[in-house]
Amino acid sequence: MNLTRKFIPSLFTILNAFCGFMSIVYASRIPENNPAGPEMEQAILFIIYAAVFDMADGMIARLLKTSSDFGVELDSLSDVISFGAAPSFLLYKVFFHNMNEFGIALASLIMVFAALRLARFNVQLVGYDKEKFSGIPTPVAAITVCVYLMHYHNKIFNEYSSKILIILLGTLLPLLMVSKFTYPTFPPLTKSSVLKHKPFFILILIAVVVSVITMGKAVFWICSLYILSGIILFFFRTPKKKSLR
């Protein structure tokens, strides 16, 4: 029974990795002459499915109190596949393949920095529950890229603006993953936690409603605001230092 309880969160983590692999499979089928086709949409959806499983495995591990070093390592390995390799390959197939070897190097940045971020996270981990992340979480970076590609790239913005934006996303997001900007973690879904973090859960509820109403288009702007919040708070936070006299 104990072994079964411990395996449940890991099952969701494995599904996370599987979705990342499926995203790569669909991205490999994207034709160069029509990147915004059904193959790209499926590749994006599997990264989103991976994010759902990634969130679920942590919540279930906390509820069942089965967090372990094995689970942390497995989660990080899965995240490198789903939120590192998969979005990097997707960016390459949709846009960066036009830039030859330089495009390969740029497209790989999300994968490389996701691996660096997750390795740093595991080394610095003390206990299994953290109140904040250092650097933007890898799923947030991946979802930001995915929603941009699905709803905005070469659709709302013109071709030149889209080119600049996709290069910026492909280079800035990886750097922000290993930055010192801090972001809050998702609190556990318990009654006491919800009451303690009521404003946070109200914001999450509003974000979900707005995302549904806009058919997912608002997710890009919600992720962008989340990313900007850490940067703004970093510069406006006043450190408490004792004056030396």
Tell me about this structure.
- The protein has helices at residues 2-28, 38-64, 69-94, 100-107, 109-124, 138-151, 159-177, 191-196, 198-213, 218-236; strands at 132-134, 182-184.
- The protein is mostly helical and 245 residues long.
- It has one domain (2-236): CDP-alcohol phosphotransferase transmembrane (TM) domain (Four Helix Bundle (Hemerythrin (Met), subunit A)), CATH 1.20.120.
- Strands 1-2 form a two-stranded antiparallel sheet.
- Helix 1 runs antiparallel to helix 2, helix 2 (38-64) packs antiparallel against helix 3 and helix 5 (109-124) packs parallel to helix 7 (159-177).
- It starts with a helix and ends in a 9-residue tail after the last helix.
Give a brief rundown of this model.
Helix content is 73%, strand content 2%.
* Computed Rg: 19 Å
What's the CATH first level?
A: Mainly Alpha
Enter the CATH topology name. Four Helix Bundle (Hemerythrin (Met), subunit A)
- Taken as a percent bin, the fraction of beta residues is under 5%
List the uncertain runs: 241-245
CATH superfamily: CDP-alcohol phosphotransferase transmembrane (TM) domain
Helix fraction, binned, reads over 70%
What's the architecture in CATH terms?
Answer: Up-down Bundle
Distance between the termini: 62 Å
Count of helices? 10
Number of domains: 1
Average pLDDT score: 86
Major β-sheet annotation: 2 strands, antiparallel
Q: What strand line-up does the widest sheet have? A: 1-2
One letter per element, helices H and strands E, the order comes to HHHHHEHHEHHH
Q: What structural category characterises the helix and strand content?
A: mainly alpha
Oligomerization state of this entry? single chain
What shape does the CA trace take?
A: globular
| Count of distinct strands | 2
